[in-house]
């Protein structure tokens, strides 16, 4: 079974500062995550100068417009190359989400083999066609979606050239932070059943328990925002994990995936050693003479379990002892005629 793919979402939590971006790479690498993911966009291609902020953006940033806010968070092509090189140095995979057609081209020139489609682009036909034509692995986030929109997006990708087997789908709720009553984690299983694709969860809740629960339910991918400090200014910091929390989440996920094990129910190697100690055998409750016919009142079930199993009691009753035996004797088939 493949390990759960863990994407540490740095996003725009670098606040436009490369030193901070590298510190985020450091924290992601230290956590044990598989990828650290940023966001790639040209502000002029992403948002109208007249576009309003989302409510969470207004709460977490100053009075700048959405355009002005995003412009400050944009990474240049040179900075992308620098981050890719730094990720290699830190032994963690680089990933970024493109938000416009030019940015898809930029990521492709960086030899990115995995493309992440954010929830907001799942109804963007030319965007989907362009990513589909690259014939790479694709992960689709599905915040704000109904099932038919996910199916439509997959159809566009496949028709454009992407192999269906290279598509994974993340359940997601587009709210930062997501309230527990809006997570609807069972929808992830519905996506898996109806679309027959690997599924995962892009988590915007506070804390780490929902991501861990998603893994227990069968998520193969977990994506989670993180920051160096939740008190930093910016749209996403408050709904992100700090480095110690990210590390705790990764550790918990690895523990859970180990604990999931296999589908068959068999005693483990350790349990096999413990069987003799924990299980019981048939013992005599008092001394019996040679030739005695065994009655239920003659028997007691006690540890250890290396004698006749109590499940065999019916086959012992009425049998004759071939020798006199003391109380507490652990009965064996050799004792019976």
Describe the structure.
By secondary structure, the chain is α/β, with parallel strands linked by helices. It has 2 domains: 256 residues, Aldolase class I (TIM Barrel, Alpha-Beta Barrel); 67 residues, Antifreeze-like/N-acetylneuraminic acid synthase C-terminal domain (Type Iii Antifreeze Protein Isoform Hplc 12), CATH 3.90.1210.10. 37% of the residues lie in helices and 15% in strands. The protein has 13 helices and 10 strands. It has an 8-stranded parallel β-sheet with strand order 3-2-1-8-7-6-5-4. β6, α9 and β7 form a beta-alpha-beta unit. α1 packs parallel to α5, α7 packs across α8 and α10 packs parallel to α11. The two termini are 52 Å apart. The model has no long low-confidence stretch (mean pLDDT 95).
Short synopsis of the structure:
By secondary structure, the chain is an alpha/beta fold. It contains 13 helices and 10 strands.
CATH superfamily heading of the largest domain: Aldolase class I
Count of alpha and pi helical runs: 13
Could you say how many structural domains there are in total?
2
Number of strand elements: 10
Biggest sheet architecture: 8 strands, parallel
Supply the helix-strand structural class.
alpha/beta
Global outline: elongated
């Amino acid at each position: 079974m493949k390990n759960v793919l863990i994407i540490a979402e740095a996003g725009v939590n670098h606040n436009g500062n490369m030193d901070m971006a590298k510190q985020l790479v450091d924290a992601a690498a230290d956590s044990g995550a598989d990828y650290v993911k940023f966001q790639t966009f040209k502000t002029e291609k992403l948002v109208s100068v007249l576009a309003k902020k989302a409510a969470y953006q207004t709460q977490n940033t100053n009075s700048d417009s959405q355009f002005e806010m995003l412009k400050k968070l944009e990474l240049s092509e040179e900075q992308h190359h620098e981050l890719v090189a730094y990720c290699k140095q830190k032994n963690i995979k680089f990933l970024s989400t493109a938000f416009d057609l030019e940015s898809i081209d930029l990521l492709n020139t960086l030899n990115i083999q995995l493309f992440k489609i954010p929830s907001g682009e799942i109804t963007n036909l030319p965007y989907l066609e362009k990513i589909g034509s690259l014939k790479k692995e694709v992960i689709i986030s599905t915040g704000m979606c109904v099932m038919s929109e996910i199916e439509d997006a997959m159809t566009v990708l496949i028709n454009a050239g992407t192999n269906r087997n290279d598509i994974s789908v993340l359940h997601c709720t587009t709210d930062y932070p997501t309230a527990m009553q809006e997570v609807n984690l069972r929808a992830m299983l519905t996506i898996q059943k109806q679309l027959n694709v690997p599924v995962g969860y892009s988590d915007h809740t506070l804390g780490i328990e929902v991501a861990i629960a998603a893994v227990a339910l069968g998520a193969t991918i977990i994506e989670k925002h993180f920051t160096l400090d939740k008190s930093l200014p910016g749209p996403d910091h408050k709904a992100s994990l700090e480095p110690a929390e990210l590390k705790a989440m990764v550790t918990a996920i690895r523990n859970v995936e180990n604990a999931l094990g296999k589908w068959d129910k068999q005693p483990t190697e350790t349990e096999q050693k413990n069987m003799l100690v924990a299980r019981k055998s048939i013992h005599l409750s008092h001394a019996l003479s040679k030739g005695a016919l065994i009655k239920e009142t003659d028997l007691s079930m006690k540890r250890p379990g290396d004698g006749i199993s109590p499940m065999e009691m019916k086959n012992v009753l009425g049998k004759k002892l071939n020798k006199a035996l003391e109380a507490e004797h652990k009965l064996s088939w050799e004792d019976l005629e």
